[in-house]
Amino acid sequence: MSSSQWPLWEVFLQKKSGLPFEHAGNVHAPDKEIALQNARDVYSRRNEATCIWVVLSENIISSTPEDVSSFFDPANDKIYRHPNFYKTPGASFE
Amino acid sequence: MTEQEREKQFEAKIAGGQIIEAKDWMPERYRKQLIRIMSQHAHSEIVGMLPEGNWITRAPSLRRKAVLLAKVQDEAGHGLYIYSGTETLNVSRDELTNDLLSGKAKYSSIFNYPTLSWADMGSIGWLVDGAAIVNQTALAKCSYGPYARAMVRICKEENFHHKQGYEILATLMKGTKEQQAMAQDSVNRFWWPALMMFGPSDKDSPNTAELMRWKVKRYTNDDLRQRFIDRTIPQAENIGIKIPDVDLKWDEKTKHYQHGEINWEEFFNVIKGNGICNKERLQSRNDAHEKGTWVREAAEAYARKQSSKQVAA
Amino acid sequence: MTKSINELISEYALRIGDTSLILGQRLGEWCGHGPILEEDIALTNISLDLIGQSRAFLTYAGSLEEKKRTEDELAFFRDAREYKNTLLAEQPNGDFAQTILRQLFISTFQYYFFDKLKQSKDAMFAGLAEKSFKEVAYHVRHATEWTYRLGDGTKESNDKMKHALSELWRYTGDLFLMNETDKILIKEGIAVDLHEVKKDWEKKIREVFLQATLVFPEDNFMITGGILGNHTEYLGHILAEMQILPRSYPGAEW
Questions:
Q1: Which of B66, B201, C111, C224 could form an SS bridge with C174, CB 3.0 to 4.6 Å?
Q2: CB–CB of A8 and B87 under 8 A?
Q3: C49 three-class SS
Q4: Is residue B142 within 8 Å of B77, Cβ to Cβ?
Q5: Segment 77-106 of chain B within 8 Å of chain C by CB
Q6: What region does A21 belong to: left with phi over 0, alpha with psi -120 to 50, or beta?
Q7: What is the pLDDT of residues B144-190, one digit of tens each?
């Protein structure tokens, strides 16, 4: 019988309904139910959550530092995507 | 890019105040140093549960019992937050735990001192957590993102630990003669070990220069120790606790307290494993781990059965 | 001498508070020694809920007495014979299997008990039951999930559950013990009829055991007496440890 460690799960918390989920940390757990319970006990002892996501860490696909220039730099010069790019003399858009 | 160029880029990044994230390139030595520091820190939280856990069943009121339980529980949580951060450096919690259990890894020597009276719950909260907060507030600005984020979370929670400890001592100092003596005796025992928590003086701390350049450490051991002393003395005076240091005096010129010589021989002795509770603490952790083995295996076996049932269905 | 209704309610509150306190105290022993860190935190969380419940119920019990004892006077200055907790609560933690099984038995009881106490005509009981019920619902979930894993995990874990069952089963009947106090308070719509709780409890435990591949014992021999102060020897030791400071320094504040 192995006594290797339980798999790693990443924990995301939603503080209040309406707010986005934020990464909180991780827990070890043998399965999804215990992962959820562990996440609840470790990361929401002070009312920090109204909903919890757990996901097996190995299932998260991340971009790498090498991707940075090709992924994100091309968005740098598209200033026309921002509203303050446009001149709208006199008119109110509030 | 050559190794040297990468290293240059890395140093420039840190000098420019940028934060290093898990997947970023980093020199092997930076990674190693972080694993050492972070795992030591995590182990300290976990071993640190034991001296206080020793008094949970004997807490003198239900309120104190609840507070102490919540506090010791937080320490398990803090250990987990930091293990979680350490695992981003490609080392598993299993490896870290094994290093602790085998005695290879270090943890803060303060937890090798015994808790002999209820007042020790006060001293640990006030002095030990007080010192930890000074350390951790600095670490919350360290260059490694996962560590810094864990520290931010921990600092938020740690203030309650500090205050509840002070409250215990303040209550004792307002109490009977026996209670006052209990409080003073406890501070007498914990004051010097608390000062040692900041580590050896800078001239004897081989790692400091490198860690400062990498912004893992933001202040020297002596600076942090001084900060702790300056903020703690007025708190002691406020409740009539005497600090057991005959050389302690306020220096009007520097606006700092001067303190007496720290007994570094004792410090290195405890680190070497000769503290009163070294053996017991490690034994407790080993027992918990061994008694947990069948539980962890059972849960794994159950998970395997469930997923094969799902596949079959 | 007949007791006033307030005295009876006070006694009833003590039973509830004492069970939570003693079980919370037992779980507190795990802190720092759990089988895995995450589980250490989970057990402490349950302990904290229980201590919270005990404080509320003991405070209420004291407020209805002539002596007006505080939660701490009740917790720290009563002897074993005056404690009214259920016998299961004082049984030793044993290994993790025994702790989980004890928790399953008591939490499941509390779940159905508080669910019914929510309807109590005593407004304080109803309110406290509402809050406690939510906490206990999680305790049941936790204990149930672990019972599945230990029962249907490895041969070793199954053996340990069986052993725990043989240690604890004979105290389960004590959960449902009633006396004159219950009779009067049930008539007043204040207390819970434990016959009904027992039916729900058995049904649920049978379900959990089935999934956990454990055999529901048909052995009906039961040791009872918690509400009457007839305890096992363990309680005296729990209290000796728990009460040492307040009793060693009478009159001191902490």
A1: C224
A2: yes
A3: helix
A4: no
A5: 77, 79-80, 83
A6: beta
A7: 999 999 999 899 888 899 999 999 999 999 999 999 999 999 999 99
Q: Greatest CA span in chain C, whole angstroms?
A: 57
Nearest chain C residue to B47, by CA: C32
Instruction: Report whether B150 contacts B79 (CB < 8 A).
Output: no
- Where are any strands of DSSP class E within chain B? 249-251, 256-258
> Which tens digit of pLDDT belongs to each residue from C19-57?
999 999 999 999 999 999 999 999 999 999 999 999 999
Q: Which of C97, C174, C176, C111 is nearest to C139 (CA)?
A: C111
Place of tokens 């049978």: C206
Of C32, C35, C45, the CB nearest to B292: C35
Q: Does B255 touch chain C (CB under 8 A)?
A: no
Largest CA distance in chain A: 76
Question: Quick check: A93 pLDDT over 80?
Answer: no
CA B264 to each of CA B185, B195, B230, B269: distance values in angstroms, whole numbers, following the listed order: 21, 11, 21, 8
- The answer to whether A11 touches A43, Cβ cutoff 8 Å, is yes
Give percent helix, percent strand, percent coil of chain C, each to the nearest 5. Answer: 70, 0, 30
Q: Say whether residue B116 is in contact with chain C using an 8 A CB cutoff.
A: no
With an 8 Å Cβ cutoff, the interface of chain C facing chain A consists of 36, 38-39, 41-42, 45, 141-142, 145, 149, 154
